[in-house]
Specification:
The structure is a homodimer. Chain A is α+β, with helices and mostly antiparallel strands. Chain A has helices at residues 6-23, 33-40, 73-77, 97-108, 128-138, 145-153, 157-180, 187-200, 262-281, 288-301; strands at residues 27-30, 55-59, 65-69, 83-87, 114-116, 142-143, 205-215, 234-244, 247-248, 251-256, 314-315, 322-325, 339-342, 345-349, 352-355, 358-363, 366-369. In chain A, helix 4 (97-108) runs parallel beside helix 5 (128-138) and helix 9 runs antiparallel to helix 10. The first copy, chain A, starts with 5 loop residues before the first helix and ends in a 12-residue tail after the last strand.
């Protein structure tokens, strides 16, 4: 289940090249971790270091070309990529800029159109001064967000298997949670115990873990743990994006300790029911907006005071969130083999939020859960 | 030891404003995780999600201003920041661009000079299309890399304490390694055991863990683990950047299993001696280049065939690597309270690399180790 056969990367590259031809684009440049990994299979936490830029160029035919610091030569050469061009980095005077310029000119031609993701959910991971130099020597870039987005939104069976595996691991860890946390622990101790359990169950990493506890409700659901002691009557939310082989799960669970008020139980049931409605709405040909509306209708009927999240779920993949978003205006057409989250949330009282999240894959006849479905009633520890 | 008192952020902001005044800069815009955290204290793994941009504006006087998605309002308001401006995100049509434009115009004036880090080791974390719109409506930015760099390179005692704590934790975990790994395990099992031990010893997270094993030597030192079985005669390198309260350690250790050849032992001793030479060379007023030369002289005398790393150590902080770099041309003057790594490495035979790394803080009279110094001879498990 580790890595991919070369055919996976061939298929990704060929799909990209088909879309490039339709758009009359001669080469695409990418430079962020998921983009480079998508085309090459190059997988390392070395991206944590901001020192060195890394580039991959997708030509109109043939394999992608890696233009990278020398420190990555051995690892990149172990992927399916044949053409690995390196420079000694860090080298602030010319950190790959001229090597990349030459490569792009060679691949795209002097007057070629070069695509670069410049739109929503993208950024260019290189110093802006260097990017400006690159742009002026190449007569600019054309936005290629739509191409990368449409490729990455549709997963292969091999990718879906990795998602399914990490979702099962995290589901197992959540099932253990009542045995791991209790009143009298600090939030920090509870976080630490849960993180260790996710790893023990087989996750590679837990890059994203947020959560909070609060007396009878929780205001801020993206918090880091504090030394607050968990008390009877508290609500607890944990939300984790964990990985297996570089693919994410992203779902949360809510619990109460010893007892819960009826309005908290009702809020839990409301978001659980909203998730059901979203799940029923997901099928090829529906849109992210119809899915949003299905969930929002349930939340409104249950007296939602709104929410600050800005959407009710999103794509999932090599990043904890990817395109598209379930919003009132997103309108992305849902297709088979998308991997999505459903994440309805509401404010059920001022300063009290409740958010549910599940992960699913879109099949020809509708959605299939990847996460093990949460209990329909608020679990009490 | 968690977080910082408000005075820490006041001091950072005032130092920044002093440098801004010297450069005639009216406001500075930052938008990456460490930059925003540096000025605000806002600390969340939510940055894993590429969907939403986050901005902080440092005015010429007074506290920084946060311009962020609504989902972060509660967490940001819990920091020392008073002025938190939010929009509902994701909103691709205008994801904070007009709110940020208004804020920068208000703070810097219509003709004000606005600084943005645009140089080495920086990038702008927002879609390039949005950045272009922002630049054109503001008459561009001026590079502020030198200001942010000079601030972040010098650590406060509170920051140094966090570095010291995580370095002790990871040193303890490395000391346990001979009890955790053995021949017959896979690389992946060894990684997993070591990661769990670092967390058990008290680290918050292990964002960076690379390593490899190899018969009598290791070629690629930034690798992810494989299913390769560890065998007698193997060398093992683990290199980890682990965190406590958002501050990194970054050092490695090398081991052999059951026995090692004399040339491997000699290579180990060469990089150990080079580290000693680098350590002796570090003092306020020296430069990163004199430190590089001190290490390189030892490596050359020991028959180094070169290395692909491109430098022999670097700054350490809220990121696993930060400015400056120990290279032949970096020439950064070393100052008191810098936190640095020493990372001499050599190829001792074709395809066989040996790299040592230690962490230190610069004091008035020289360097102090933060990592527990590696054994002078290659440890054999």
């Amino acid at each position: 289940m580790r890595g991919f056969p070369d055919t996976e990367f061939e298929r990704r590259t060929q799909r990209c090249q088909t879309l490039m031809a339709e758009r009359d684009i001669d080469a695409i440049l990418v430079c962020t971790e998921p983009e480079v990994r998508y085309f090459t299979g190059f997988h390392t936490p070395f991206w944590q270091s901001p020192t060195r830029p890394w580039f991959t160029v997708v030509p109109s035919t043939g394999k992608p070309i890696a233009v990278i610091p020398g420190i990555g030569a051995a690892s990149m050469s172990a992927t399916w990529i044949d053409d690995v061009r390196t420079w000694s980095s860090p080298h602030p005077e010319d950190d790959g800029v001229s090597l990349l310029t030459d490569c792009l000119r060679e691949v795209a031609g002097a007057d070629g159109r070069i695509g670069l993701p410049m739109g929503p959910e993208t950024h260019v991971r290189m110093p802006l001064d260097d990017l400006d130099r690159l742009r002026s020597s190449l007569n600019g870039f054309t936005d290629a967000t739509d191409i990368i987005r449409s490729l990455r939104m549709i997963k292969s069976e091999a990718e879906i298997n990795k998602h399914s595996h990490i979702c099962t691991i995290v589901s197992n860890a959540f099932d253990e949670l009542p045995n791991l946390v209790s009143t009298g622990m600090t939030e920090r101790q509870a976080f630490s115990a849960f993180r260790a359990e996710i790893l023990r169950q087989g996750a590679d990493e837990v890059p994203y873990l947020v959560g909070a506890t609060g007396p009878g409700g929780i205001g801020d659901i993206i918090r880091q743990p504090s030394d607050r002691l968990i008390e009877p009557g508290d609500l607890l939310i944990f939300d984790t994006g964990s990985t297996f082989d570089g693919y994410f799960s992203d779902f949360d669970r809510n619990f109460a300790f010893t007892h819960a008020a009826q309005d908290a139980k009702d809020a839990y049931r409301a978001v659980w029911d909203a998730t059901e409605a979203g799940f029923e709405a997901v099928r090829p040909g529906a849109t992210t907006t119809t899915v949003f509306e299905a969930m929002n209708t349930v939340l409104k009927a249950n007296g939602s005071l709104g929410n600050d999240v800005g959407r009710m779920g999103h794509g999932l993949g090599m990043q904890v969130t990817e395109w598209p978003s379930h919003t009132a205006s997103d309108n992305t057409v849902i297709e088979e083999n998308m991997v999505l989250t459903l994440e309805p949330g509401l404010l059920w009282a001022p300063g009290k939020a409740m958010v549910h999240e599940e992960n699913l894959v879109v099949r020809a006849d509708g959605a299939e859960f990847l996460s093990r479905r949460a209990a329909p009633e608020l679990p009490i520890i």
